[in-house]
Amino acid sequence: MTDKNEREWQYTSTSHDAVDDRHHGSINIPIYQSSLFAFESYDKFEEATRNSRISHVYSRGNNPTVRYLEDKLAELERAETAKCFASGMAAITAAILSNVKTGDHIVCVDQAYGPTREFVTGYLKRFGIESSLVDGRSLDNIRSAIRPETKLIYLESPTSMLFQLQDLAACAELARSRGIVTIIDNSWATPVFQRPLELGIDLVVHSITKYISGQSDSVAGVVLGSERLISRIAEDEYMLFGGIMTAYTAAQVTRCLRTLPLRMERHERSALAVAAHMVSQSYVLRVNHPALSSHPQYALGQQQMSGSSGLFSFESDVPHEIMRQWASRLRLFKIGVSWGGFESLVTVNPANAGCVTEARSLVRLHIGLESVDDLILDMDRTWAAMSLTDEGVSAD
Ligand SMILES: *Cc1c(COP(=O)(O)O)cnc(C)c1O
């Protein structure tokens, strides 16, 4: 399928539902605000309990509103099935725990989301699960980190501070040849731009909180993959830890999903325009954006992704303190964590705050849905208003 056809299919998939008698033809999935589901007879009750993955018995296990969203997300990600969680971290930790036990070893990319790394390298150590963090840009690094007891390779491509990629098809092939399960955090690209299951990865996780929601009003997560791997997560981690998505959140996220392809195309265009502008700025050393041809892994990105989203970073030799002043003076960029919403955001990190870079500052930008001309003007004006002194640049 060509990319254009794929995109058109995504628009239809997110906008169209067959009329469903069970919901009285309701054009939107109703919010099934019910903890339990009752039965006419004991026979029907027992039958439903035996098929708890598809039938509705109790909302900690399976709720119709949540199930609707799971099916929609699975369709977009080309997964057999999905399970939605209360947050991205609930989905990530459930997916990891489902695939390891005491004595096992995990290979994890060293630039993965901070709390994920902390869970893998710190928390799981308490249970006798070992791990190695590797620079995932080279397949050789991943291959040499594999031990006989390695059961899981955890990927995140691109990473969300330096935007480093892993070769997903090659990682999947390597893992399969050793009987190792692969998980990828696909929050940055979303299924609109990257479908890792098609490249052989076993499980995809998302922080729905970011682009899939896109409204900065929900915290949510999802795991997608084969029925075999997902039903194990649904029966164990989902049911036992209880970090479920509520029907209300599912209905809210379902509304957001309608505009996902539309929003992603806008984030892509705007972020590329801002990134290209940043390349020529005197205070910018390097722009980390996988769809800029200057990115060291540009070719790989073009091969495994059909587009790019709105989050990227730039490195600067301007001291951290000055970049913080610049960020504080921006009018259209808010200072805040997270990303993926309608609003543009900025964070300024001192060099080496968890990231390997020689620059003095690492500035991360999320390009929202505002006018791209206004965003560029805001950054240019703010920089121009800060004048040079002997110490470097300072506020005037
Ligand atoms: C935010 C984030 C998460 C965690 O998601 P929550 O919904 O906040 O739990 C995981 N991975 C990445 C890349 C993220 O940015």
From TrEMBL:
Pfam families: Cys_Met_Meta_PP
InterPro entries in alphabetical order: Cys/Met-Metab_PyrdxlP-dep_enz, Cys_met_metab_PP, PyrdxlP-dep_Trfase, PyrdxlP-dep_Trfase_major, PyrdxlP-dep_Trfase_small
One Gene Ontology term of the molecular function aspect: homocysteine desulfhydrase activity
Documented EC number(s): 4.4.1.2
Classification via PANTHER family: CYSTATHIONINE GAMMA-LYASE, TRANS-SULFURATION ENZYME FAMILY MEMBER
Family that this chain belongs to: Belongs to the trans-sulfuration enzymes family.
Protein name: homocysteine desulfhydrase
Organism, as annotated: Cohnella lupini
Phylogenetic classification of the source organism: Bacteria, Bacillati, Bacillota, Bacilli, Bacillales
